[in-house]
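pasting for the record
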Amino acid sequence: MNKLTIVAKLRLIAVVAPVLLVIVAIFIAEVLHAFGAIPRGIIENQYASVRAAEGMENALFKMDWGRSQPDGPQIVLDQTRRFVDYIETARAHMTTREQAEKIAKIATDAKPLLEALHNAPPGDDALEPRLRELEGSVADLIGLEEAALLDIAAVAESQARTLIAITVVGAIVIPWICFYLIVRVSGGLFAELKAIRRRVEDLAERGPAADDLRAIDDALNKLGFPKPNPMLAE
């Protein structure tokens, strides 16, 4: 197996640095692209879900308040329609299984209750416990939506830490490692070439000597330039 020459080693180290930096740059670009998509995803899903849950809560409060107003049936009817629309909006933007289960429970519990509210006479408090229970379910849904937002924030923070680490490695550690390797290899090259120069000067002054020739030959072997194999030459 042929030994790598000193020139091949230097070229290899010089190639490693840009290749690794390209890989790191691609990874950083992908992470930055993911960061850029986070705000849009929050607006399209989590923020819309929170607004829908808050809209459901507001509609229930207005129903409860409107029952005692002169046009109570119309207020209850209008808020019922809004409540149903908010349920569909929340269902369209849900992102977790817990949210889906909570929305399904709210829809199941709300249908008979809203019908009863529409038909109940003003001042009838028999439906108050069921109404409070439904409001509690909606409050739980809001809590789930906020928890989903916190999870996204935690993921973004984790990605940011990873990006910082990759950037430090790619922009600082890799170039300095390659620089160190080049300095170390070139330092050995300098020492070997200096020794060869000294031996050549000795040969020029004293004529050929076996020790000097052997030292030059050893130095060239270390630099990756061994003698040609006679068997291969044939």
